[in-house]
């Protein structure tokens, strides 16, 4: 069945005259266990970022289709919540195996729609699959607590699902972020509606197909598409009890406000500005390689990209060597085997990044490596490419410091002491990730305890926690207080009942009513 997926999903004939755009391929919805063509007349064109060739048309899901997705998820919840935990575990075990077997197929879809290199796309799938593998432990994760609180009296907790949940995803990890959401949610007995990014929904649909293969029943997982109208529906629909969001500040603040105003739980992971502190006692070779990889890998389109380097004291002398390493990175289409950096997601993203580079120059920073208009192979000449770029002598008032650039641009600031570096980072509104490179354990410990950032690397550039932990960004990088995946993720998708039970009450005084609080 998996093999027939490419024909059943990818060659669906459009029902509206989208052929005027010279394409026969549209992206289907996944509702009630079926891949269906939207009846919409509003289609969002999706272009391959490396070539700007049209890949597919993504529907703005109609209100009727959205309602069908929510109704079917609500209906499916009635039986799914009663399914045994062992049967849900069995499905997850099969699901992770199918993801493993179809990693290449998912990765190719990611590279075609999102642009990142094939090797990096496989990492996207792997990091998502690890969440599924951890969710396979649902039989232990969902255990409650029990205590004999008095003679013959027990108190115990039961973790129950919420109902229909929804996930709204960004473009930069088309497999990993949907997998942060639906495996844990459905493992806990919820049903889910996923809205992938309208810029690269292909991976989420392959995952939905694999979930169906693994035995996820119809209606338990649904995938809808679109932009603001779909998001508004999710924020307002009465069946939806909780929304997981990952993406930009603007969308996240809006969704948090509208979703919580409607009484829903909302967890929202937002933007970032991640600083890497380089102490002069760090291992130079290792540090420079890690810096180049974490600033420019995935063309800087990672929420944990180390995009801001803070050079303490003499470490500022290392910049020429960093330029040397960054200039050697190969810029090309993500399908090419030796590519280091693929394109940016859209032409608009490319222009925005180029403008932020120019603003740095205009505001007094030194452009020591200019990646604008890089040379790429002829077949990628229309792609959205920006090469590795380094702006030195950046100051906190500059726009290139204040904004999340989300491109292959590393900005460098100089400070005299570790305390200056900590002060700078703690003054930044974001708190997603940070790292210190040092060979001094005492400085590293001082840094980890003084810094107001949720995820800290010590000689580790992109410290995204593995899924037995949770993703713990803080400050302006998060709205809501219950994190994604790990114990916290499960807490988000469940509610707790606490039962206090007394079965033997012969010894209790039966002669009068108990009107006072027990003391
Ligand atoms: P985005 O906010 O543009 O899109 C995310 C989702 O929100 C999409 O599904 C989109 O359809 C929807 N959306 C977009 N604009 C909207 C609006 N005005 N109103 C309602 N919904 C809207 O984000 P993106 O560009 O796809 O992703 C990049 C951003 O995501 C970066 O800021 C990055 O830091 C952030 N991100 C954060 C994390 C994290 O865990 N902190 C992880 C990945 C990405």
From TrEMBL:
One Gene Ontology term from the biological process aspect of the record: thymine catabolic process
Name of this chain's protein: methylmalonate-semialdehyde dehydrogenase (CoA acylating)
Start and end residues of each Aldehyde dehydrogenase domain: 35-499
NCBIfam families in the cross-refs: MMSDH
Family statement: Belongs to the aldehyde dehydrogenase family.
Alphabetical UniProt keywords: NAD, Oxidoreductase
GO cellular component entries: mitochondrion
Signal peptide location: none
Naturally occurring in which organism (per UniProt): Gigaspora margarita
Presence of keyword 4Fe-4S: no
Superkingdom, taxonomy of origin: Eukaryota
EC category name: oxidoreductase
Lineage per the UniProt record: Eukaryota, Fungi, Fungi incertae sedis, Mucoromycota, Glomeromycotina
Pfam families hit by this protein: Aldedh (PF00171)
């Amino acid at each position: 069945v998996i093999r027939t997926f490419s024909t059943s999903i990818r060659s669906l004939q459009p029902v509206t005259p989208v052929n005027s755009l010279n394409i026969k391929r549209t992206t289907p919805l996944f509702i009630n266990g079926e891949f269906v063509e939207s009846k919409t007349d509003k289609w969002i064109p999706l272009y391959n970022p490396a070539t700007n060739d049209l890949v597919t048309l993504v529907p703005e899901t109609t209100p009727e289709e959205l309602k069908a997705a929510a109704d079917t998820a609500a209906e499916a919840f009635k039986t799914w919540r009663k399914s045994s935990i062992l049967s849900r575990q069995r499905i997850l075990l099969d699901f992770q195996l199918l993801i493993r077997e179809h990693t290449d197929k998912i990765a190719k879809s990611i590279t075609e729609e999102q642009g990142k290199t094939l090797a990096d796309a496989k990492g996207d799938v792997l990091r998502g699959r690890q969440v599924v593998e951890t969710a396979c432990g649902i039989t232990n994760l969902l255990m409650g607590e029990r205590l004999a609180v008095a003679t013959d009296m027990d108190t115990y907790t039961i973790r129950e699902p919420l109902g229909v949940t929804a996930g709204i995803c960004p473009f930069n990890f088309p497999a990993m972020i949907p997998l942060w959401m639906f495996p844990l949610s459905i493992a806990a007995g919820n049903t889910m509606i996923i809205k992938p990014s309208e810029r690269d929904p292909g991976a989420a649909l392959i995952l939905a197909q694999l979930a169906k293969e693994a035995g996820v029943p119809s209606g338990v997982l649904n995938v809808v598409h679109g932009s603001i109208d779909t998001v508004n529906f999710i924020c307002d629909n009465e069946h939806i009890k909780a929304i997981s969001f990952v993406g930009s500040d603007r969308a996240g603040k809006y969704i948090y406000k509208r979703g919580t105003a409607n009484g829903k739980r909302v967890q929202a992971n937002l933007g970032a500005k991640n600083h890497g502190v380089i102490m002069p006692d760090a291992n130079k070779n290792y540090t420079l390689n890690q810096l180049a990889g974490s600033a420019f890998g995935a063309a800087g389109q990672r929420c944990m990209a180390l995009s801001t380097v803070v050079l303490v004291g003499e470490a500022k002398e290392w910049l020429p060597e960093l330029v040397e390493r960054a200039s050697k990175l190969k810029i090309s289409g993500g399908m090419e085997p030796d590519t280091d950096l693929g394109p940016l997601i859209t032409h608009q993203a490319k222009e925005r990044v180029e403008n932020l580079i120019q603003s740095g120059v205009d505001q007094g920073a030194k452009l020591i490596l200019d990646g604008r208009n890089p040379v790429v192979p002829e077949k990628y000449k229309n792609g959205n490419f920006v090469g590795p770029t380094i702006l030195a002598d950046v100051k906190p008032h500059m726009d290139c410091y204040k904004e999340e650039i989300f491109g292959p641009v590393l900005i460098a600031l100089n400070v005299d002491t570790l305390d200056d570096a900590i002060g700078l980072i703690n003054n930044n509104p974001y708190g997603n990730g940070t790292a210190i490179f040092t060979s001094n354990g005492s400085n590293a410990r001082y840094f980890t305890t003084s810094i107001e950032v949720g995820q800290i690397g010590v000689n580790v550039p992109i410290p995204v926690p593995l899924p037995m932990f949770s993703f713990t960004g803080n400050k302006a990088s998060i709205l809501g207080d219950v994190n994604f995946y790990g114990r916290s993720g499960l807490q988000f998708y469940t509610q707790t009942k606490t039962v206090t039970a007394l079965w033997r009450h012969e010894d209790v005084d039966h002669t009068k009513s108990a009107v006072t609080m027990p003391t």
